[in-house]
Amino acid sequence: MKILVVGANGQIGKHLVGLIQDSENHTARAMIRKQEQASYFEQLGAETAVVDLEEGIEDIAKAADGVNAIVFTAGSGPHTGKDKTILIDLDGAVKTIEAAKLAKVKRFIMVSSFDTSREAIQAAPSAFAPYVAAKHYADEWLKATDLDYTIIHPGALTNEDGTGQVEVATEVERGEVPREDVAAVIFGSLDNNTTIGKEFQVVSGTSPLNEAVKSI
Amino acid sequence: MKILVVGANGQIGKHLVGLIQDSENHTARAMIRKQEQASYFEQLGAETAVVDLEEGIEDIAKAADGVNAIVFTAGSGPHTGKDKTILIDLDGAVKTIEAAKLAKVKRFIMVSSFDTSREAIQAAPSAFAPYVAAKHYADEWLKATDLDYTIIHPGALTNEDGTGQVEVATEVERGEVPREDVAAVIFGSLDNNTTIGKEFQVVSGTSPLNEAVKSI
């Protein structure tokens, strides 16, 4: 499978491209915002496509030409300007979804936020609520398509080394999870069609990661 | 008809409540954010409901209890913090739409922005793009419902006195329009069921306002 990783230059994205390039059956195309980010991915043997998520659907669709799956792991993050929250976390995600349709790529994995429900928007501290709302609408948009989607809701992200031990379910208790393990869950989801049409939360836990993903 | 005006304390909202209260067949309920805004509307003989659009769907639905139509003319405006753009212009609008369903109010009039198309988001100056995107998603949400909606896309709003002369069509040339005339177009749409399921732009022009609305 060839996989377009949107937001490849983020920390989860970098872990994921590494996993894909280390695998036997898959290759990655890293979608990045700036040409100077390309060399990192070229050294891993991955393809690159330079597209800013503020560009149009057609530009993203061109980057997706010929791939078998798209992973959206771009994020302005909860601490960037709120203009980027709506233009990247919501509109960038929706444009990527529309680009998937245009490029006829059925498989789509969305890296979301831990809880993007209506209740979570209402309960969020005011500085965080816009981010939760943006992710909510992006997830809703994806679920309304007929793409083969998987929505992954990670807990609080850390930069610890991955442990390969997670807890994965529709609802789990709030907790932390290393970005490296999130990347491995994405990778595992690409290989497990049982995750299609599903969304689940993931935090650090006690189940071996690959078995946990298969159990979804 | 009893009409819930969401965003009543805005300039268009105040004009609209005035028109409704001056009419023979309609009465207004002004939804406002703060109790101290109530006296203005009470002096016009209108009911009031104090609800902040950052509250939940149920709170808005309570304000809509027993009304026959809802007008959404709240807006953080293009110059507020971008957190409010997503929480009010997008999420506040969507919650009001969901509240309409919950309160079984079929008629819904949305005051949108002049052009909320995908192309308009892409073409907007970066400071304005988040606002256009927020209005885009709110409009899309409304169009996907089975509410009896009308979406009004006014040109550049001014505080000039209304002239009662407008141009109204799916697409008109970009131009200005007094807020007072926009309020009159909303009022006219409430009385004209031919506007149901339609969206149109409005700028100052040469057609008498009521005839223009009837021609939609």
Written account of the structure:
The structure is a homodimer of 216-residue chains. Chain A has 216 residues and is α/β, with parallel strands linked by helices. Chain A has one domain: Rossmann fold. Chain A contains 8 helices and 11 strands. Chain A has helices at 11-22, 38-43, 57-63, 82-102, 118-123, 129-143, 179-190, 209-214, and strands spanning 2-6, 27-32, 47-50, 69-72, 107-111, 148-154, 156-158, 165-169, 176-178, 198-204, 207-208. In chain A, the strands form 2 sheets. Chain A has a 9-stranded mixed beta sheet with strand order 3-2-1-4-5-6-10-8-11, sandwiched between helices. A two-stranded parallel sheet of chain A has the order 7-9. The first copy, chain A, is globular, with a radius of gyration of 16 Å. Chains A and B meet through helix 4, helix 5 and helix 6 of A and helix 4, helix 5 and helix 6 of B.
The CATH H-level superfamily of chain A is NAD(P)-binding Rossmann-like Domain
- Quote the CATH topology of chain A: Rossmann fold
N-end to C-end Cα span of chain A: 21 Å
Chain pair forming the biggest interface: A-B, 24 and 24 residues
Q: Mean pLDDT across all residues of chain A, rounded?
A: 96
Strand content of chain A: 15-25%
Look at the helices and sheets of chain A and give the structural class.
Answer: alpha/beta
Return Rg of chain A in Å: 16 Å
Q: Count of DSSP E strands of chain A?
A: 11
What multimeric state do the chains show? homodimer
Question: Given the structure, what is the number of helices of chain A?
Answer: 8
Which ranges of chain A are low-confidence, i.e. pLDDT below 50, for 5 or more consecutive residues? none
The main β sheet of chain A shows up as: 9 strands, mixed
